[in-house]
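Sorry to interrupt, but I need a hand with the structure work. Could you write out one complete protein record for me, on any chain you like? Just paste the record in under my message, thanks.

. . .
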Amino acid sequence: MKSAFACVALLITLAGCRIPPSVQSTRDIQDSEKGSAVYLKTLTEDQRTNYNNQKDDYLKELNKDPVAAKKNYAIDVLDSQRILGRMGYGTLFTGVVDQRTQNALSLYQKNKGIFQSGNVDVMTSFALNQDEMLLNKRIVRTGLFTFFAQLWNRYFSADGAWDYQNKNDYSVQASHIDCDPTSRVCKESDAILGFGTALIVGTKDYNIVKWDDYRILAEFKYPPCEKDQLEIVRDTQTVTLHMISIDKDNPHCKDLLGNETTIDAHLIDMKNLDIQRMTELEKKREALLLYSETAKKIIEAAK
């Protein structure tokens, strides 16, 4: 008994008696958030929502089933060690917050601008998972833009990506369009890759309402909210999709389209944007990795 008290009294100076961190309390989470204010400001609205949901789920489980919370904490520790090791922080996959893991966590938290708890707290677990998503992320390149108008009066086709549907690289979309004056139909074939894993393929038929020597105009209706108008201009070699609101007073339509009366999408070549995204992704990944001085010299020498 005396030896146990002595161990506690010498906790700071005797590494062998150091008590490893454990499951977080509500107070620990509050302290972590106060010390991570700068990091929290860097989160997007969606990321902040995800963090809050993760925190709420943790607190509910902690209050409802402390035993399950401890089991999940051990799993989080193991996952954190794996991610830290992948980024160069030199952890072993033990499932226990030992001294080596505490040092790695503290250094990671310092580099990330997170409260240095030396523990796998909710904030750190969230940040590590965000970084792993970045490490796993892949940029899928879309096809080049083509505008085939050599047989204008008999057939037309185009390939590319809609700029409106490709605002970010979490969902990548490529399209092929071909128009036939005989059937009076322009067919759009789409391939959409969502979050790098789910491929969705679909087609849509636009009824041609005008086809002269200069322009093709075709329409597709989404009753009761929207009318899509496909406009193809021969001289400028442009393909534009006008998404037109046809019932602005309908609350359901407002949820789908917002306050805009017309939204325009343009079929473009995404090559330059794809290269830019790939370059930015590599820089972000590189910033996550912890290199020793020897490793840095090797990288510099290889340039």
Summary: The chain has two domains: 18-136, 146-276.
